[in-house]
User: Which sequence fits this backbone?
DNA sequence: CTGAAAGCGCTTACAG
DNA sequence: CTGAAAGCGCTTACAG
């Protein structure tokens, strides 16, 4: 059986109140007593039970993180940064992979509430999930505006889409096509597409967007794109994984990159930079997103609602390399 | 203030004992009472406090996962699979990124103990961390044998190294060099190196290993390797990220892959397969590793120590593609 | 079929 | 400087 505070008290020959005081360094305790208690704790290998503490304090120092999938490099890196910052602040992280499924998101949210988390960081593209549980739980959303009451932190997707499209134009591409994720989910990628369309129209060009979805895989869509549009000479993909698949297919078809086809991706994770460094891409500041999200969540937790920024869109960076 | 079981009881006009019984579906309760209680819970938006439940039951359904870094695709995918399986079993996951640092691992372990986790899954290459806290906490190690008492689940690293080296030999490589991670950490990659050396020696060839470390980056090491050994025509990298960097550097030097240089990596994550599908690699069964690790941990938690396999090494698979 | 009481492991106001 | 008591939100053996 694990020792508890009474076991420590017995060994040290004091009351459990005193042990608790030593533990929390609270009130006056004689050095002698302190020593006795510390020795007793060590002797019986005592660790305080944070469950009991949390129950009393009504604060768990637990944060829930709901992301679609930590396998994706973007979310894997986001989870890493968020966890690191949480730990440095004394918070612990409960990880939840929702696969972007609303039913899972709701179940996770209920689980987090039952576990009394102090706050939740959520990356969801399903509006409305969070209204479901009417608890007034501190929440911050990443990447996507959910409701007036929920602060959102992300990066400047419109500017990213603009920068990407403009680069292809500057590089003399005549036939620029965009590949995006599911258009029905309200992902931030939709703003990238909007910027693409605006820039194209501004140039008097016709925007064309292909859509990758759970039903149509990256590979399928890209094959169709090349079949439909053999004239394509510039592709802006809404994430780096799609861009990588474009490069693979282009190679198969003997299309040289960047002379015959220029490709630009989106995200610029460390992983992709390591594996495919030649990919030109728009880099999101994942570490800053994590930092700002936790800053805001901490403020919500501490009840400082007055100086909270409700929408933060951090700047993105063009990383130019060999594929353009 | 969040409602508690007494609030529900008051609204429903019953005792809190009865509410608890309804909540746990335990003992006989009249349908009428059940209904009243459910209505009351809904009315005041009640969710049970799992902290209090856990405190009573001395079981939290919390699992701790300590990995080096969820940014790395291998660990990101491992975390994903572990979390998914945990959730399907009613466990919740506390994520810890140790950066392979022993001091962090120890702090995380203490945190997990204080939080009363039911068990811990740990990927560490620092022997001895776990002896530190002498709690008899259910633990399972992934990828690395830590002590007689701790079951380990991994894949067959020796066979992976053997398969990789043999492929390069079969493909007529004359000068095969191996690149490994830090040799002082007892990583599973060391077994891959051992297999490489054995196969090389068996062929009457001299094994040569270059070491990537926190001090010497992948890029640095690879540049040196090519400078030292312009004759190299086969490289076996102990992970896919190193293999990718080899490919990048080879391209810079105008060495054609696979005609002048053949490259094989290790891990075969979904991410790398998506971004660099032409990479030949040895694939680890990440999902099975996760599955078996949790199976074993569950058994430890339930106290079924009799039918636990203490060492499990799952088979790896050669994925042959364009780089060889 | 239902309730009062004790207890899970802590903490803190209150006394002394 | 130290201790007894009440309470955080639950659950369950025991009565009835």
Assistant:
């Amino acid at each position: 059986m694990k020792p508890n505070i009474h076991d420590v008290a017995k060994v040290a020959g004091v009351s459990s109140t005193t042990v608790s005081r030593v533990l929390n360094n609270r009130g006056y305790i004689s050095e002698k007593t302190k020593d006795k208690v510390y020795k007793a704790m060590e002797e019986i290998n005592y660790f305080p039970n944070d469950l009991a503490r949390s129950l009393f304090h009504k604060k768990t120092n637990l944060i829930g993180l709901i992301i679609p999938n930590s396998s994706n490099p973007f979310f894997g890196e986001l989870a890493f940064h968020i966890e690191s910052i949480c730990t440095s602040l004394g918070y612990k992280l409960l990880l939840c992979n929702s696969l972007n499924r609303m039913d899972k998101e709701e179940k996770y949210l209920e689980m987090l509430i039952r576990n009394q988390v102090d706050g939740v960081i959520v990356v969801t593209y399903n509006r409305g999930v969070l209204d479901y549980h009417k608890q007034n739980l501190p929440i911050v959303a990443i990447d996507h505006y959910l409701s007036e009451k929920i602060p959102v932190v992300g990066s400047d997707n419109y500017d990213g889409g603009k920068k990407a499209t403009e680069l292809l134009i500057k590089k003399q591409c005549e036939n620029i096509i965009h590949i995006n994720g599911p258009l029905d989910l309200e992902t931030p990628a939709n703003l990238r597409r909007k910027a693409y369309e605006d820039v194209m129209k501004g140039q008097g060009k016709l925007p064309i967007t292909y859509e990758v979805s759970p039903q149509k895989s990256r590979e399928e869509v890209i094959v169709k794109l090349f079949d439909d549009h053999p004239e394509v000479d510039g592709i802006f993909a809404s994430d780096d994984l799609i861009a990588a698949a474009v490069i693979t297919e282009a190679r198969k078809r003997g299309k040289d990159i960047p002379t015959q086809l220029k490709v630009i991706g989106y995200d610029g994770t460390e992983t992709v930079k390591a594996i495919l460094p030649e990919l030109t891409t728009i880099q999101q500041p994942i570490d800053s997103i994590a930092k700002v999200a936790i800053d805001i969540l901490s403020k919500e937790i501490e009840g400082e609602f007055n100086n909270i920024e409700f929408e933060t869109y951090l700047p993105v960076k063009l990383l130019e390399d060999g594929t353009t």
Chain A has three domains: 5-48, 60-155+286-314, 157-284. The longest strand of chain A covers residues 62-67.
